[in-house]
Amino acid sequence: MFLAACAATPESTAEKSTGLTFIHLNDTYRVGAVEDGKLGGFGRVVTTIREAQAEGREVRVLHGGDLLYPSLESQLWNGLQMVEALNYVDALAPVYFVAGNHEFDRRTPEHLINALRESRFDWLGDNYRFNTGDAAADAMLLSGFTFEYAGKSIGIFSLTSHVEDGGNDRDYVTVDKDYLGVAKRVIEDFESRGVDLIIGLTHLYMATDRQVAELRRDHPTLAFVVGGHDHEPEFSEQTGSTAAVMKGASNARAIWRIDVDFDAAGVGHIDVHMLNLGQGVAIDPDYELINRKWRARLLALYPFLEAKVGEAAFPMDATEETTRSQETAWGNFIVDQMLTAFGTPAADFAFINSGTLRIDDFIADDITFEDIGRTFGFSSYLRYMTISGDEFSRVMEAGFRGAGGSQGYFPQIAGFRVCVDRSRVVGQRIVSLQVPVGGNWQEIDSAREYTLVVPDFLYNGGDGYELPQDSPVSRPGSELKYLVLDGILRAQSEGRSIGAPVDPGKPRIEVHEEPVAQCFSGN
User: Which residues partner with 61 through β-bridges?
Assistant: First the structure.
């Protein structure tokens, strides 16, 4: 019985491994699961790891970045709760982590130094360096990383986003934007060292990952690239000239299992499976103790967190998959509060980037303080400005660039409606942008000056929105989450519930994948 028990441990399965398995996840912001515990979470990732180990596989975990921020808890503990969660995973199977843009949300480096000191997993980085002023912490970032498995050498190169591609511009981190050049140099170094299999671990947009994957044409040991930054599953198949590319869903709602096996000639082959971590996957009971511990700490600080502040008129879908792709009832309610943020008369327009809304859940039945706190993972101070119709039309093009799907720059809007044709070239996709006039809708007047309320983040160029800097503008003020709380409390005092269903016949945002004869045909 003792020998059988020993054979079940990760250490001995590694000695008798039937193959190497990578588990990949990315963009995780909670210690626990989402959607009322029904989807994702580290507890289900742990179960998946244990199942692979029970098959005799040696397991390694790849994390594509965005761990420390943003979340309700990270406003209190600066991501240390997430570090503990990933440390637990690392004790079960070694974790290799690339920093995402949200690791650098804070303007000073103290939070990063503390996170590095507490980390038991490996931080990897080839196109960036830490300059925190703490030499020991800076030295924890590893480049040109390799590890050994069954006599084979595995190399991992790691890339994160430059400020021009959604990264954060901070003095304590230096990022090289030459992603392909850096990757090529590291791969060539790996080849000179006789590395048998090469992996890319990134926090870049999918289009860039695909470019990196094309390095396989000249470097056939590059097997796959896994990453983060995008929040929904993505996949490109491995070919003779391109590496496979994979991204999971945020908060581990969907992760990837990549099995690697070497043939008699020493060539590594991969077998890839996406795993949806829903209620069919049990939450590991030992890991769940960590979730309960941090939950208890949160409630000790905020005993009112679960208190009711209002009622939802119906279940509002505020998951990232929906919010980052289309108009939503919760998004509409939030952005409607912005129109009067600076008093009367109300502003003409308001919009936010959907990446501001972090709850990744449904707003249903009783609305609580926690719903509001989780919606806003970081502060969103607002600005009031004037802008011409022509300038505004050009600004809004940024919300509909790219290939569609779940994107944090996708806007939630108020005071206007927009019709988009994604088949057109980027920057010219808005077919119609209309404003209300006398109870009807008409095209925006390009020469007229309008008033606009936006988050300070967007005013300063966040998520690719280039707002004019020479127009009259207020100081940052009027914190959005308090406006939303006030709107909910006011409705509750008047006996009103929150939320109106999105009317498909009268949308604020109408998106087409090909040209249409008429926009807004319902009205």
Answer: 23, 95
pLDDT at 4 over 60: no
Cα separation, 7 vs 30, in Å, equals 33
Are both 272 and 389 inside the same structural domain?
Answer: no
* Residue type present at position 34: V
Q: What pLDDT shows up at residue 16?
A: 59
**What is the tens place of the pLDDT at every residue in 276-287?**
999 999 999 999
Alpha-carbon distance 516 to 519, whole Å? 7
CATH code of the domain containing 263: 3.60.21.10
Q: Roughly how many angstroms between the first and final C-alpha of the chain, as a whole number? A: 74
Q: Domain check: are 230 and 350 in the same one?
A: no
Kindly state the DSSP code that residue 326 receives in the 8-state scheme. S
Mark whether 220 and 352 lie in a shared domain: no
Interatomic CA distance for residues 280 and 202, integer angstroms = 29
Residue 199 and residue 341 in one domain: no
H helix or E strand, kind and range, residue 184: helix 179-192
CB 453 within 8 A of CB 383: yes
Contact 451, 384 (CB under 8 A): yes
Domain C-terminal end among 226, 254, 285? 285
